[in-house]
Amino acid sequence: MMQYLFLLILASLLGTVHEAAGGPGTEAIAPSHDRPVAAGVAPGGFVAAPFPTEAPPGPVVVDGLPAGSAPNANLVTYLDISPSVVDISGTESVNIWVQTDGTVTSAEVEHFNGSTYPLTDYGGGLFGTTLSHDLALYNYAHTSYPNVNRFGYINLYQGSTQVLHGWLSVGVEDRQIPSVSVSSVASDMQATPHLVNLVWSFSDPSQIDQQAVAKRFYQVYGDDYDFLNIISTPSYFGNRYHYEVRNAVSGIGLSIFDNSADFGSSGQLLGITRFPIPVFYFDGAERTMSHETAHQWLQNLSQVSELQGVTPHWPVSELARSVLGYSTPGGQGLSFPWDLTPQGNGDYVMHYNPLADQYFQAMDMYLMGLAEANEVGTYAVFTDQSQSLCNGCTLSGPTVNVDVQDVIAQYGTRSPAYPNAKTHFRLANIIVSQSFLSAREMRYYDYFARRGEATIPIQGNYPWAVATWERSTISMGLGTECGDDSASTATDLLFFSHHTTPSPPRVGQNFSLTASASNWSSNTAHHITFFTEIPKGLEFVSAELNGSSTACYGDELIVCVRDTMQGWESVTLEITMRAAQAGSFEHRVGVSSCNYDWFPSDNDSSTTIRVEANKVFLPLVTKP
Length: 624
Fold this sequence. Notes:
- The protein has 8 helices and 37 strands.
- By secondary structure, it is mainly beta.
- It folds into 4 domains: 149 residues, Immunoglobulin-like; 110 residues, Immunoglobulin-like, CATH 2.60.40.10; 161 residues, no CATH class; 97 residues, no CATH class.
């Protein structure tokens, strides 16, 4: 057990200025832990990653089928895109197989290039085709969704009637994906530091026996995990979902129970999240990962009359302004990215705020054991739950108010309560497949699992640690990779010190920033990962960890990995950037480890970079 892991992050702009730049930054404002009060400003006072300012046309699916999917998803037994991850610089083609229920008469790929490509009917409801590498990566834009390319739709027909219209996506490997070792841990199991690949016999991925999968996992790995994610490939059109395996928390609307033995755990496992689609659906940093994990505690308040019996998400209300979102009458979870402005007559006007659904609100946090009852405000709930929702729409009253005392009156006070409730969780990711995944696929899915440990906003995503107001953390590391000390109880041992160079870089110049991590104990720390995103307007030049460029990957989101850090050892990350324009830029560095149970606070993980304009009479100023 590692008791005294101390990671000291020191970031400073080096005095030496070379060549390279930015977009004007925004000043952080005072935190609002109940909900962000302005677009671009997050709880904790730091400047958030950039978000589109244009409002979406309507709510976004949080729990549900991929957008673009029609009903009749049950017509598809599985969809197999092989390989599921392609090399951006490669040439290999992609095979598409879709197994249907036998009532489908034809199938085609509706490609985003405007063409359609028919699938061959192989009989028994099986259709297939092959697309070239260029078609699979058609119009790939790294900024639209990192390392994922949606290239078209799969259309299924019964006669001349289209019965299904669903997205087709492929994972993209580029220099953003870190290299990881793949280890054989059993005849049917291989693993990376953040992912287990289990070979399993199945014909219908929706019917995989999850209890049997969990039991097989526990035969190799210790009973050290609070949550399991079970992902499958081939995939099927279906919902992500979470279910509780064990609950020992009172006051949240759930009974006390323990079914962990049915899954091979001896009372450690809390719950399981099922991911039916690996590419695009599975991303540890994305909102839906936090959303599904939070369903361990949210929302089971059916006896609180003000909520009108709506579960498992919130009703249309101020409560819905959260990662959890709101429930449709059918129970599907939709996002609620809007601020509600009272009009003084009982009505509210909806205004798009891209951060509104990226953080948990205070009632969520209370039920999760991450906030005290006195931190929870009062929320308006609309009596009419069938109103249209859109940017600029008016939600008509009347409303009823609900607060934490309404919850306590029905269920009692949460126990254990914050700050005595558990705040650090371990999660194991298991991807089930019919044969071993390739090394490229293992690298890819390990990377998207690892992203869940990030303690800063990355590429427009707000991972668990950020969404929970920096009060909770998740470790994705596996026990055999992390060592026996992976459940460290060291807390509040992460400190930051930042300062900018007294001579700011000018436009067109390169400059470097450093961040150092120190293990102030005699124990070995495992899988130290630095996360840092290059601010918009600055350009990435290079990154080195202890002088090695091979330990760092990416050019927008920089991920640098150190497998082990010995006792009393330090590592230093050096990022070199180019200043493209004048302005002030907020730069953040986050760090995660198998051994941590802490989170940086007070905005100490960020620093402001000030880039000065060149003097008009000099084309390039090499010295300020």
